[in-house]
Amino acid sequence: MTLLEIKDIHKSYYMNKTEFKVLKGINLTFDRGEFVSILGESGGGKSTLLNIIGGLDHQYEGELIVDGTSLKNASEKKFDAYRSQTIGFIFQSFNLISHLTNLENVMVPLEMTDLSHKERVAKATALLEQVGLKEHIHKHPNQLSGGQKQRVAIARALAADPDVIIADEPTGALDSQNTTEILEILQKIAEDGKLVIAVTHSQAVADHGTRVVHMVDGQIDYDKQLKPAYPAPTGPTAKKSSPLSFMSAFKMAMQHMRYDIKRNLLIILGASIGIFSVILMLGLGQGVTGYINDQISSQVNPNTIQIARNVTRKQIEAGEQGNLADKDIKRLNKVKNVTKVEKGYYTNGVQVHYQKKRETVQMFQTFNKTERIQDIKTGTKPKANEIILTKAMAKKFDKNYKKMVGRTVTIYVNAISQDQRPVQMRQDVKVSGIINSGTEAVTYGTLAKMYQAQGLTFAPNFAAVTVNKTQNVKAVQNKIKTYSSKVNGKTQKDYQITGVGAILDSINTYLMLAFYVLAGIAGISLLVSAIMIIVVLYISVSERTKEIGILRAIGARKKDIRHLFVSEAFLIGLLSSVLGAGIAGLGQLVVNALAQPLTHMPIVAITSGYVLFGIIISVIISLLAALAPSRKAAKLDPIEALAAE
Ligand SMILES: Nc1ncnc2c1ncn2[C@@H]1O[C@H](COP(=O)(O)OP(=O)(O)O)[C@@H](O)[C@H]1O
Ligand SMILES: [Mg+2]
Predict the structure, then answer these.
(1) How close is the Cα of 554 to the center of ligand 2, in Å?
(2) Distance in angstroms (rounded) separating the CA atoms of residues 462 and 456
(3) Count of CB atoms within 10 A of residue 144's CB?
(4) Which protein residues are within 6 Å of ligand 1, measured from CB?
(5) Which ligand sits nearest to residue 91's alpha carbon?
(6) Atom of ligand 1 nearest to the CA of 48
(7) How far is the CA of 2 from the centre of ligand 2 (A)?
(8) C-alpha of residue 47 to centroid of ligand 1, in Å
(9) Which residues are registered as beta bridge partners of 222?
(10) What one-character DSSP code corresponds to residue 439?
């Protein structure tokens, strides 16, 4: 049966709506074992015809029949399979993929077969040996002469074992010696029972074949048999082929990245900066928050919180004192995980006199569990009629501040009586100890007695609530916040949480907010990375237009081309984020080492979650960046792509 038949092919190009007829009714049949030369003047439509026969061009009138099956209105998929299984292309300008070695070039069509990797290497090696390039298989195409390049191209065309070899001016760029050798190879291919169709404008070249088809002005002038066709192989030449796998596309992307490693490393470095800054900022947020919490916890006991009655300004103006009643203390005692509730009282502007020196304490409070016992470096906590001084205050009284312990100071406390009369109370107290942090304090009982001695009522204005475990503090706070009652018809919370512990939560919230903002700003550099990747991929698409054309001619699907660029973007995203995380880790080491003398603890704390987040974000951004460029690449017209410089 006829292998190939073309029926009444008409093809026109349109230039500004002017029709330009190139092929004007071509009818030909071809068989296995033929070596057909299509001879004609330059511009006569030979390449146009070859592109139609090769399944690259579908825009024509007429019919292409392969092994009895018409390809009229065939699907894109059918044409892809036709190019990969039935056709092997050889071009005048070789069209090898420069970033692949010769062996890899020959292996490209083999990636679309179901041979194993080993078999592919063996077959490609054998083909290159067959065309006399045994020593050159691991070189790149640009390390070969023109004749050698064309041999690689022939080996590639033969790789998928196609029935038809199509060669467009295969010797056009070669000297006479190489021309003869290439023609001999082509003749051998025909002798093996394949159909070879070679286009030429040289009569001498055409004389090599078994048949010459002469084209003039888009029509066939004559069709002359020179010698009988070579015997066709007996039996069917069944072949199995499979589309390019994602892994193959991925591998090709890797090969491409490796070829221009310097440039790609720069791109990866550039793209890594965004991820680096995001991860570092998140780590800094985590570290600084931890540091500040640690600082606060070192000032106050983290397990004890201060509770006061929640009163509005209106209530205070109406004479509400905001004191805690016994029932409040009882209620707080009943909250789950609470181990102790101490009555407390704080007041402003207390003066401490020692000999001639007078000092004012802004926040004076009764001693309670919020003070850290371990911070009492000298002496003990106050008992009745005793006071604990801060180190700062003790130093003001005596340079040798430790000597203050055991001495007597006088405190002056101001209060307002029920009839709005100012009252000043005075009390001699003994210094029980010196505390490094916190405030000056006497016991609740000491202060209560002073008030009662003046006939003033005294009730706690805060309670120090101690929780069994730090982890339960938050739950206790939340529970206390739930108590409410109706005040003047409105529901109002009964208590508020005061003291340093209360602001810990809000400090954390603000800190995290601040660092999310910083990370967000760092995210802008991610955006820059994304734009960079888009630009790089677009450049890559235009640089690799020819390669795309070659791959399409070999039978790669649009999808495969897309996979190629998506893989490359994925690799850039992955590698740059791993690098970015690495640099962030290094930055963490450096910053923490520099901060160590000041903070005595790490200030950057990158978690594995942040690293994972960074890597995932980077890969997603890269894949998104690849969308448009890879689509553009996939949509390129293979013939135009092949014509690209
Ligand atoms: N894509 C195209 N758009 C417009 N005209 C084209 C295109 N490709 C080829 N042509 C024109 O069609 C004619 C035949 O071209 P071609 O088939 O390449 O000739 P040959 O291979 O015989 O030299 C030429 O005049 C050429 O300028
Ligand atoms: Mg041509």
Answers:
(1) 19
(2) 18
(3) 18
(4) 13, 22, 40, 42-48
(5) 2
(6) 17
(7) 26
(8) 7
(9) 214
(10) -
CA distance 626 to 32: 44
Ligand that comes closest to the CA of residue 639? 1
Residue nearest to atom 17 of ligand 1 (CA): 45
Q: Which atom, in ligand 1's list, is nearest to the CA of 44?
A: 22
Report the candidate in 14, 50, 156 with the shortest Cα–Cα distance to residue 551.
Answer: 156
DSSP 88: E
Testing ligand 1's pocket by substitution, the residue of 11, 13, 16 carrying the most ligand atoms inside 8 A of its CB is 13
- The string over 357-374, giving b where at least 16 C-beta atoms fall within 10 Å of a residue's C-beta and e elsewhere, is eebebeebbbbbbbbbee
Can you give the pLDDT at residue 438?
79
Tokens of 55: 């399944």
* Helix, strand, coil content of the chain in percent (nearest 5): 50, 25, 25
Q: How far apart are CA 595 and CA 591, in angstroms?
A: 6
Which sequence spans correspond to the domains of the chain? 4-243, 256-296+514-643, 303-494
Tokens in use for 611? 């690293």
Please state, in angstroms and rounded to a whole number, the distance separating the CA atoms of residues 427 and 82: 106
The per-residue pLDDT for 504 is 66
Question: pLDDT of 592-605, one tens digit each?
Answer: 999 888 888 888 99
pLDDT of residue 462: 92
Give me the phi and psi of 222, to 5 degrees please.
Answer: -150, 160
Which ligand places an atom closest to the C-alpha of 167? Answer: 2
For residue 241, what is the DSSP state?
B
Q: Measured between alpha carbons, how far is 291 from 353 in angstroms, rounded to an integer?
A: 37
Q: Quick one: which of 347, 298, 309, 321 has its CA closest to 463?
A: 309
Cβ–Cβ under 8 Å, residues 139 and 104? no
- Most informative mutation of 16, 42, 47 for ligand 1 (most atoms within 8 A of CB): 47
What is the model's pLDDT at position 153?
A: 96
CA distance 397 to 410: 12
3-state secondary structure of 69: strand
Rg over CA atoms, the chain: 44
Furthest CA-CA distance within the chain: 135
Mutate to test the pocket of ligand 1, among 9, 12, 14, 22 (most ligand atoms within 8 A of CB): 22
pLDDT digits over 443-502, tens only? 999 999 999 998 888 999 999 999 888 778 888 888 998 999 888 888 889 998 876 666
Fold of 4-243: Rossmann fold (3.40.50)
- The CA distance from 618 to 635, in Å, is 26
Sign of torsion, CA 574 580 585 588? Answer: negative
Q: At which residue do the structure tokens 């045994």 appear?
A: 134
Bridge partners (DSSP) of residue 196 are 35, 165
Q: What is the pTM of this model?
A: 0.73
Where does residue 607 fall: left (phi above 0), alpha (psi -120 to 50 degrees), or beta otherwise? beta
Which ligand has the nearest atom to the CA of 214? 1
**Could you say which residues of the chain have pLDDT below 50?**
none
Which residue has the CA at smallest separation from atom 11 of ligand 1?
Answer: 43
CA dist., res. 159 & res. 127, Å (int): 7
The CA distance from 56 to 89, in Å, is 11
Residue 318: both structure tokens together: 């109406």
